[in-house]
Amino acid sequence: MRIRMLKIVVGSKNPVKISAAKTAICEMFSEVDVQCIGINAPSSVPEQPMTTAETQLGAINRVKYCQLHTQADYYVAFEGGVDQFEYGPATFAFVAIADQQQLSIGRSCNLPLPPLVYQALKQGEELGHVMDRLFSTENVKQKGGAIGLLTKGLATRESVYRQATLLALAPFVNSDLYSR
Asked: Of 3.20.20.70, 3.30.1330.10, 3.90.950.10, 3.40.190.10, which CATH number belongs to 5-112+156-178?
């Protein structure tokens, strides 16, 4: 029996994002082989998105860039951001997934941020750099992320991105239900 190959392009070279996309797609489409590559796709939003709208737009811009510049079965892009909610500041991510016919947007859960972290972000710093300084780590955004540091590794940036990807894949694996 011949196994079908899916080509996935991720709008980042960050190994955490590539692994999250590949893992989720391999789980959802277990009957296929997956080739997953990352490319540098610009978000066209600030390095540290500070609103929900900016964060979502960053993921959409990255996935559109991938579609314009590569050929694949699926395109996946992530954008992490922060916002001030009624219960306090939090970080989260959006994932945009597209094929040739449709676009699906998923979102991760919120991780509450300590006030001193949020203040540093408001001053123009990026979350990964703030967390590296506070926890004496290096390049945590390509590892467990702020999520891993603040949850003692019980949740990680990759695990949250993987879950958001699985949720955003629902319209692709149930297209008959979503096209009604």
From this structure: 3.90.950.10
